[in-house]
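User: I'm putting together notes for a lab meeting next week and I want to include a structural view of one of the chains we've been expressing. I don't have a solved structure, so I'd like a prediction I can at least talk through. The sequence is below, exactly as it appears in our construct file.
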Amino acid sequence: MNTDYDVVVVGLGPSGLTLANLLGRRGVSVLVLEREPEYYGLARAVYTDDEGMRIFQTAGAADELAADMNVDSAVQWVRADGRVLIQFQQTERRLGWPVVNFLYQPYLENTLERALERYPHVTVRRGREVVDFGQNADTVTVVHAECHGTGYGKHVPSSDPDTAERVRAKFLVGCDGGRSVVRTKLGIDMTGTSFPERWLVVDLKARDGVDAFRHLPYFDFVCDPELPIVSCPQPDGHHRFEFMLNDAQTKEEMEDDETVRRHIERFVNPDEVEVLRKLVYTFNAVIADRWRVGRILIAGDAAHMTPQFIGQGMNSGVRDADNLSWKLTAIIKYGASQSILDSYESERRPHAKAMIDLSVFNKALVSVDNKLVAAARDLALTTALRVPGLSGWIREAKMRPAPRFRRDAYLGLPRRRWRGVEGGLAPQPEIRTYDGHHRRFDDVLGLGFSVIGYGVDPRAGLGADDLAALRALGARFVTVYPLGGRPQGKPGDGRNAGADHVDVEDHTGALARFFAKAGIGIGGLLLLRPDRYVFGGADRGRGGALIAELFRQLGVSVPSPLEAVAPAEHDRTAAGPAPSDAESAAAETHFEEAM
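Assistant: Thanks for the context. Below is the predicted structure for the 595-residue chain, given as structure tokens.
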């Protein structure tokens, strides 16, 4: 089909920026349309988790983003006098990144927007409003015009019809926020609850030369029935407070300079800080009834809105972008069936809804404004912290919804056991490479599917047709050895690495534990999707059935070895010959001895 772009993304917030970066890095041509001519420049989101950082890693921006974050902060529920009720401490690195990362959103968005400059096939157009769109079986047509913006919701946008342009694309994704034009024009309703409680958000910046926030090192939910408060540290001398309003207080009163000063002086010297933003807001816990109509999809706040009480609104949109990006790439570049997009909503909706529900629950506990109810809550929490098992579960915030798809609702093999790994997010431990360097596991997996052999070159047990099909899909082959378990002692050992294969040492033991959890022994395989969720596993000698099921679910025909491999002759040469059965058996024997 003849189109101007592969994908049109509407909206240049975190969801749209992440999607554009992920698509751009995978070689997909993108047009991003943003109706606001100028960047907002103020914070909204304040937090991302380890899942979000791992996605930013795939987008090639995580290290730069992390440099501007406040990481590993304790998160606390405190009484009105500052005494700690509960302190949540999450310092594990199961996904390769801290679980707690406080950010300043302008820094994050500026970094992600600059990153798009790396891709000549990604075009960003600010001050362009989508005024119409339509689709047929093959394409989406989008009409956009010059727009003076809304001032980020302060007034109605106005566009100039004389500046209208028409573009055609294979897909359109609306990442255009809670007031989504794309969702509205599709006639999609949102279901859920709009909460009447109002909060005053105040964003502060310490004045030059002043250390105004050293005494507020952690994120605090101040569980004061007289005035519930949220206190959030941010990088580079920024800090946020949120104060719950009572029914008698008006928006105008609360946004008044003197009112703001009176509220913040409980915590800081008002003369030592600059007020960057003060705003009274309400919040919604809603989710769109549909996330896709043909070739048009919605993501982020356009698809679901999460109350701010666990900091997951932005992160849910980032997860949407990760899920969509590889599926759109598989369709556009590798000929996968458009039907794989059916799994976008079935995979993402339950997790987004669970985050919304947890946020609403936390809001209900934090914002208790009745003294007797608050006392009962505090007693229940302190009692729970004395219960073995339950105490650790609470302190480590294990109530957060796990990155695991609902059974029978995802693209992949069914779970082989109740706690099976299929449809769950694989860990990202640090691994040791052949040349003795430590790297994050995802950095050796590439951007596509990855076939991981446990103590064996995963290519050895696959037929020529399977290898050809996987190479045509851009897959990477990875061998995992224990520390000290590489084959050694014979000329030629280790020559099986190359452009599409890498071998690593699992010096932390995290991957060995994950294979054990999967029920996969020496010589077995795990197949990871590009978003690092487990498609499925196979015992030794059964890899062919696993690969066949992948291509069946993708709706891709398996090419012959010649037509799939010939275009990448230089890659095949660099990879060297596949190991013989004898070589593979020797490697596995050495692996078992090392274990």
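A couple of points you could mention at the meeting. The radius of gyration is 26 Å. The CA atoms of residues 484 and 594 lie 7 Å apart.

User: Perfect, that's what I needed.
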